[in-house]
Amino acid sequence: MTTPTAKKAAAAGDYLDQRTNIAVAVKGFARKVFPDHWSFLLGEIALYSFIVLLVSGFFLTMFFVPSMSLVTYHGPIASMDGRLMSEAFASTLYTSYEVPGGLLMRQVHHWAALLFMASIVTHMMRVFFTGAFRKPRELNWMVGFLLMILGLLAGFTGYSLPDDVLSGNGLRITDGVVKSIPIIGSYMSYFIFGGEFPGEHIIPRLFSLHVMVVPALIISLIALHLLFVVLHKHTQYPGGGRTDKNVVGFPLFPVYVAKAGGFFFIVFGVLALMGGTMAINNVWNYGPYDPSPVSAGAQPDWYMLFLEGSLRLMPGQTEYVIAGYTLSLNILIPAVVVPGLLFTFLAVYPFVEARVTNDKREHHVLDRPRNVPTRTALGVAFLSAFIVLAVAGSNDLVATHFHMSLNSITWALRILLFVLPVVTFWITKRICLSLQRKDRELVLHGHESGNVYQFASGETIEVHTPLNEQERWLRVNYDAHAPLEIEPAEDSRGVRRKGYKADRRWQKLSRFFYEDRVEPVRPSELSDDHHEGGH
């Protein structure tokens, strides 16, 4: 027996299924299995914070005026009353003080943007260190990389919209960076700003990018990213019973849907709490944009600090005039070359690693970071350089808060930028190799039990406790890649082989990755150790 409502719902579902065959897709998707691990929530945080960004951003567009036309402000903020400002800045003040819930939505929007970028960066770190970018997920890594770039662009276009002193100075820096590009820089600046900086068009253009172009691209890439996750099946951490041919976890419906839905409201609640209790981007403290005042303590959001720090660390006496053109290395290197190197490293790394391993298999079980020491060390070195640049972006605050010399801090950070990545690379690689050797020892000899026995001969030994199957599987089920082997430089007839030099370069790079390695324990070694009384 069914109710009339249930009958109508069933009829509607049957009507739709007969014309779209959607039941097959829903049935297959509902049975999709997802592993259960806390680190997989990082991607969900990015998705949910983006949803909050869309909702709060829609609210803000109802009141923001993307215009640089000048008006005289008369409103509840006494310090701003009677001041000349752009309509963009005036509408930001109006939204914050006169629209019910306006300030809350502004702050929720800003905190959601910060969380969106933080979760993307942390999610990419998890993917990098565990090798989730390997075949067949190289393209999905590129999708995530593009999402990070678009997130940076969305953040930059967003906090530039209020047209206050802080955002105006950020645009001024952008103008300088664009003009530092040889030959085409000045033309690009004219194109972006519609004339000499600041012009009258930059805020409307940024608004169009921020509310239409960039969100549309992000939504498209998120859809593509999720499609790849479904097509490739989800990665999983190593463990007993987990192979490249299965997925151990929970089905999408009803378990995962219920957990994901609850987690969305947790993220939304935390962002609402932060927006209601933590003030951020109080533009009335800075005032409308004026190119003359630039105060200390003026930093962009955290994800752009590395670019600010790079500019602050670069010495200023590096301009050269060549054939009547000024080459501003003091801006070009820190703002174009350094970020270009960092982003290029992220973009091409999966393809470089695939080349130096010559591994063409599909991988669905993740790596333990200790089992790929060079990759882990490179990732830590990259992060150390990023952190140094981020600290440099706040060197004035460090100097004022800790009563230190600004010049001394700057020089220390300049040295650290070159020294710290090398040191962290070496230390991290040594730690990973040591952990691998410890795993090898545990597999061969087991855990120390603390039980000591003495034979009649007087000899004493400590009996070790063997590892269980799960512990042993975790420590032996990985590949220790060896450096590439290449064909000789000359063939059997003494003719020099074409492409040998390129192969030789890849071989050298492969040795850098895999010359130092610890082989996993083989069954024969474990059997020999048992026969010798190793346990």
Descriptive overview:
This protein is mostly helical and 535 residues long. The chain has helices spanning 4-20, 22-30, 41-61, 87-97, 102-130, 138-159, 165-179, 185-193, 202-232, 252-277, 305-313, 329-357, 373-392, 395-402, 406-445, 469-476, 500-514, 523-531, and strands spanning 33-34, 70-72, 84-86, 250-251, 319-322, 325-328, 447-454, 460-465. The strands form four sheets. It has a two-stranded antiparallel ribbon with strand order 1-4. A two-stranded antiparallel ribbon has the order 2-3. A hairpin with a 5-residue loop joins strand 7 and strand 8 (460-465). Helix 11 crosses helix 13 (373-392). The mean pLDDT is 89.
- SS field, number of helical segments: 18
| Shape estimate | globular
How much beta, percentage-wise?
5-15%
Whole-number radius of gyration? 29 Å
Strand order of the largest sheet: 1-4
Number of separate strands: 8
Please, what is the oligomeric state?
single chain
The main pleated sheet reads as: 2 strands, antiparallel
Keywords:
single chain, 535 residues, mainly alpha, two-stranded antiparallel sheet, 18 helices, 8 strands, globular, membrane, Di-haem_cyt_TM
Topology, pairings included?
Elements: H1 4-20, H2 22-30, E1 33-34, H3 41-61, E2 70-72, E3 84-86, H4 87-97, H5 102-130, H6 138-159, H7 165-179, H8 185-193, H9 202-232, E4 250-251, H10 252-277, H11 305-313, E5 319-322, E6 325-328, H12 329-357, H13 373-392, H14 395-402, H15 406-445, E7 447-454, E8 460-465, H16 469-476, H17 500-514, H18 523-531
Antiparallel strand pairs: 1-4, 2-3, 5-6, 7-8
Helix pairs in contact: 3-5, 3-10, 4-5, 5-6, 5-10, 6-9, 6-12, 7-8, 11-12, 11-13, 12-17, 13-15, 15-16
